Amino acid sequence: MKHEYEQSSEIIEMWYHTYSDDIYRYILMLTGDHELAKDLMHDTFLKAFKSVDTFQGRSSDKNWLYQIARNVTIDYKRKKSLFNMQLKLFSPWHQTLGVLIKSQR
C-alpha cells in the first residue's frame, strides 16, 4: 500500500501533465502577464497538492483546479492591490521623513 503522500504526489503529477497548459492559459487570460501566469500556475498546483485530500469529486478534477487557479489569482491581485494602497498611503510619509533626515545632516 502506498503512502498517502506518494499517492497525492502521483495524482498532482498526473493533473499537472494533463492540465497545466490549460491552467496557465486561464491565468494568463486573467492577468495578461506570462511570467506571473507561470508563477500563479505553479502556486495553483502547490495549493492543490496541499489540499488534494479535501477533493471530494463533486466536480471534475479540472474544474476543481480551475477554482483553485481563480482563487490563487484573486488572492494575488487582492494582496497586490492592498500593497499598492499601502504604498500610496505611506509614500508621502516616507518622502517627508526623507526630507527631514536629509535636512538634519
UniProtKB/TrEMBL annotation:
Please tell me whether the keyword NAD is annotated for this protein: no
- The coiled-coil regions, if any, are none
Query: Keyword annotations for this protein?
Result: DNA-binding, Sigma factor, Transcription, Transcription regulation
Q: Name one Pfam family in it.
A: Sigma70_r2
Give all residue intervals belonging to the RNA polymerase sigma-70 region domain. 16-81
What InterPro entries has UniProt attached to this entry? RNA_pol_sigma-70-like, RNA_pol_sigma-70_dom, RNA_pol_sigma70_r2, RNA_pol_sigma_r2
Give the matching NCBIfam families.
Answer: sigma70-ECF
Q: What is this protein called?
A: Sigma-70 family RNA polymerase sigma factor
